Amino acid sequence: MAWNEPGGNKNDPWKNRGGKDQGPPDLDDVFKNLFGKFSKGGGNGGSGKSMGKLGISLLVGLLVVIWFVSGFYTIREAERGVVLRFGEFYTEVEPGLRWKPTFVDSVIPVDVQSIRDQASSGSMLTEDENVVRVQMEMQYRVVDPFRWTFAVENPETSLSQALDSAIRYVVGHSEMDDVLTDGREVTRQRVWEELQSIIEPYNMGVSIIDMNFRDARPPEEVKDAFDDAIAAQEDEQRFIREAEAYAREIEPRARGRANRMNEEAQAYKEQIILEAQGEVARFEELLPQYEQAPQVTRDRIYLETMEAVYGNTSKILVDSQNGNSMMYLPLDKIMNSSGNSSQNLRNMVPNLQVPDLQNNGRGSNNTSPSSGLRNSRFNNGGE
């Protein structure tokens, strides 16, 4: 049976101590007995009184030493100390070993060099009434320990709530495609600016170092469809870049061909103009000769024209004035020969009149085989 069970249990350790019915000791009686001993010691004469004073002095000295030693503290290199005197701001202290009067001053160390993180995520409604899940992370640093400690009641909670408000405001004023695809950087920048405008009136003594857009995705029910849409947009951008690269590659070549064709056309134009001017000059030179002998000049012009026309054909002119004998010539070999085929034909057949293939039938003495052409007949393949 336990000693504290009801029913008159006599196993209570504070009862029957020393054979008497006794309860737990009283603290007032303990202190009274202690000071009574010091009083009795003082009643034994001067030595007892001095011993009592010495004990009190030692006790007070020990308490003073403990109080003095307890006042030493250390501020680390990355921290600044905010000193409060009787609960009111007193000063700020730099890193190092410091001392403060215990029970008078209190010190709150604040880290002012470390980069702190604050994340926020949640499902949000966009401007086009779609639901997206956004996760962003903020990095900040404390620049004013006093403002960080006393500007707001809980600065970390206030920052978290301000970040949530900024994200929801920006996402609520953006379309879903902008948040999920190519507008992520713009959204990140807008959230940063909105957060700055929210915390600026509070003057919390913090500086926003960076804002990271960690994730943005649609609800799981439509995730596959949005993945396909994003892949299609990426393919579109890729095709556009490939088309631009092809245009940059083909455009210089097209410009080169166009310039070459323009130059060729210009050269052809100049050639035709010069040829026409040459013909005009030639006819101007023939005009006096025509006035002197019109019929002879017409016949000569006719014969020269026919010589130029038939000089580019496969016809062979044979002089039949000395007889109508049929001649068999290796015409295929003659026509496939080089530019001296006319001279070869003249050497083979003395009476054969053919146009010169190199100078279009004109001899070196500017004469033409007009006499042979008048009384000749055209043979094609031995006819």
Automatic annotation (TrEMBL):
Per UniProt, the ranges with Polar residues bias are: 356-383
Localization per record: Membrane
Topology class, membrane: Single-pass membrane protein
Name the keywords, alphabetized.
Hydrolase, Membrane, Protease, Transmembrane, Transmembrane helix
Is Ribonucleoprotein found in the keyword set?
A: no
Per UniProt, residues of the Band domain are 70-230
Q: Which domain of life is it from?
A: Bacteria
Q: Where are the residues of the annotated region Disordered?
A: 1-23, 353-383
**What's a Pfam family in this record?**
Band_7
Q: Name one GO biological process term.
A: proteolysis
Q: What subunit structure does UniProt give? A: HflC and HflK may interact to form a multimeric complex.
Q: Which family does the similarity line name?
A: Belongs to the band 7/mec-2 family. HflK subfamily.
Name of the protein described by the UniProt record: Protein HflK
* Organism lineage: Bacteria, Pseudomonadati, Pseudomonadota, Gammaproteobacteria, Alteromonadales
The UniProt gene name for this protein comes to hflK
